C-alpha cells in the first residue's frame, strides 16, 4: 500500500438474511487505501444534508469513496470508457452543492 494514502480496514458483518432459509454469510474484512480522508468526506456529505436520512449520507459517502478509488486506479479500463467522463461531471455537481 502507498504510504501517501490513508489506510483503512473495512469489515462487513451479515446480520440478517432477507430470506429465513438463507444462511448468514461469514464476515468480510478488507484493507484498503484511499487518497482522501473518508471520514472527512462523509462528514462533508452529512453537512450538505443531501438525504433525509443521515445514515444514507454515510452509506453514500463510503460507497462513493470505495467506488471512486477503484475507478481512478482503473480509469483506462474499457469498462469505464463511457462512465469516467460522466463521473467527473457528477463529482463537480456534488462538490458544488
Automatic annotation (TrEMBL):
Pfam families attached to this UniProt entry: DUF3861
Classification via InterPro entries: DUF3861 (IPR024476), DUF3861_sf (IPR038194)
Domain of life the protein comes from: Bacteria
Protein name: DUF3861 domain-containing protein
Amino acid at each position: 500500500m502507498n504510504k501517501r494514502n490513508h489506510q483503512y480496514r473495512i469489515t462487513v458483518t451479515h446480520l440478517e438474511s432477507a430470506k429465513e432459509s438463507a444462511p448468514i454469510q461469514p464476515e468480510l474484512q478488507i484493507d484498503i487505501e484511499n487518497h482522501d480522508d473518508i471520514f472527512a468526506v462523509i462528514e462533508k456529505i452529512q453537512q450538505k444534508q443531501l438525504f433525509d436520512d443521515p445514515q444514507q449520507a454515510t452509506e453514500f459517502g463510503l460507497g462513493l469513496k470505495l467506488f471512486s478509488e477503484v475507478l481512478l486506479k482503473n480509469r483506462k479500463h474499457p469498462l469505464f470508457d463511457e462512465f469516467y467522463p460522466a463521473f467527473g461531471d457528477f463529482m463537480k455537481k456534488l462538490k458544488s452543492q
